[in-house]
Amino acid sequence: MAGSWHKLKKYLSLKLSSHSDRSLPPPAGIPRNDVVRSPSSRSFSTSSTSRLSRSFSTRSSKKTCAICLGNLKTRQGQAIFAAECSHSFHFNCIASSVRHGNRLCPICRSQWRDIPFQAPANIGDPQCNGTVQARVSPYHPTPEDFHSQTTHNLQLLFYQSPEPHHFSDDESLVVNSAKSADPTSPVSLSRPQLVTVKALPEYPAITASESFHTFAVLVGIKAPALLDDARLLDRAPIDLVVVLDVSGSMAGSKLSLLKRAASFLIQNLSPSDRLSIVSFSSTAQRIFRLRRMSDNGREDACLAINSLKPSGGTNIVEGLKKGVRVLEERSERNPVASIILLSDGKDNYNCDNVNQRQSSHCASSNPRQVLEYLNLLPASICPSNQDSGDEGRRVIIPVHTFGFGKDHDSTAMHAISDASGGTFSFIESLAIVQDAFAMCIGGLLSVVALELRLTVKSVSPGVHIKSIPSGKYSSEICDQGQQGVINVGDLYAEEGKEFLIYLTVPELSSAEGEERMEKTSLLDVVCSYKDSVSKEVVQVECERVEIRRPVVLSPMDMIVCLDVDRQQNRLWVAEGIAEAQRMAETGNLEGARAVLAQRRSTLLSSASAQAGDGLCNWLESELREIRERMASMELYEQTGRAYVLSGLSSHSWQRATTRGHSTTQITLLRREGGDSRTHGVIGYETPTMVGMVTKSQTLNLTPAQRSRRLNKSCSFNPRSG
Asked: Which residue of 175, 202, 250, 518 has the fewest CB atoms within a 10 Å radius of its CB?
């Protein structure tokens, strides 16, 4: 038995490894006049043929199915299976017989080396909307062997399916029956909580005789939480395309961990969400059409993921082009759309179009070369590639990129995410790829506000808006400094954003006999967005920002607002990291480390840091980590560059990313002297992100380990403000 088992394993491994080199019939839905033939049908034994002539006439066996006695003529709407012994049957008939354990020909009783295999009814070719697939499967004597061959047949099914010319074959959107059936249900009512808006001046007062050219006002927004009793229906459903690198370098544990992470992602999507899967190596292929993640949809998506095999080179551009097509050509649209891109290598098919220099990195950090690489991408993820006249009319699709390991092109991946409005995460450790995906989808599956826009207006003569450092969010100042706009876009549940508005504030001069004004009104702040459930436009106004104008300031008037100081520190540190990164790219690591040290010193002397602010402690830890990763050029090129770019992505969008060995930016902080009091800070993480990462991390833990992790997590508190 052991010898037979060894021979079977060897046979299957050879067949699987050689499959990609053979030209096989496409596994699309079986055409009505097709005959499904066994691979061994051309070399059946002479003894089987003699038994056939003795037991059944050749002429009659070709006309009649021996199982159902029905006609075997082609073009009758049924697939026909021709066995290696030359007998033919309706495919469904013989597949049913095989499922019941029959491995012999019903006519001549010869034992088949290859048996018909029928994929489950819910596994369909993307172009056939669930049409049953006919396959021929080698015979295996044990259930374990049969499961192995099933996996092999699924690989054939997903890899050989021809793509349609147009990706308009997406599954229809789900109808929210709960909303229409019960008008009093939580999802049919207006959201009980709105986005909150705050506005705080840098100082509560300035003297009447003073004027400021850069007076700061902090404007902050925070999204409401998801309803506990309607979490799946209280957010915007998403159309998500995962674009996965399956090049030869992904072989082994990388691909295994990627499959596990992708399966985790799939299992956490709801029936309202839709998913498509694109794989790329030397070329790109859509292996799973855009389908709703119902029970069947999730099962089929996992089967598609498990069919992935590594081979070939790395063609990131082609993978993204195909992923964009899935979203551009879909016939229906969910409110939120996004792409997740993961790669462990450099684009070795498009780099030669960008530069001919010898370098270990494809796009390098040269702005011109980065721009040339981005020019190869579709306009939907790179707005600068839009034709004149299309600006503002094309929907931009965010691409959240994940650089896997030490050999990926972090510069290119960061540039792609930056241009599209997504984030770049650096997965340094193979073990955290699932946690990295969990962090990302924890946000994507909690969108509660769409197309959010902040508008600030000056309300006093002489008060002008001078600048709005908004990171990567687009902003503009118009009406000669009287109005400013920040386009934030989608907001995750309980996600906060803070922006500084710098103003000029004139001195107060009152004419003789006029009453001196005691206050100066600075700004009106309005926030508008679409509710993710009702799709209604919501407008929230903030209390007008005012400051007092006394003749003499009191000691309390000279205390800076810690919220404003904290945000100034964040921008100061982010600018310093960007400057250090530019210096490191030129080889000036000593200068880069000096910049980081100087920014750290200034940070620690600030009012908010002196007050023990958690965010400042987190920023100081970040500066230390970056300095360590810039200790040498070798270390910087291995991990430092990717770590820095992931951090810059996080700061630019005020959104959490995976950086290095950890998905979490939660830091436990203790005061000097061993004070038992702890302060938790979440950099940009939201509770739903933390919850999804925790879910990922606890999947394989014992109950005791889960309890310890839960007790530890309870000591963390969200970032204040």
From this structure: 175
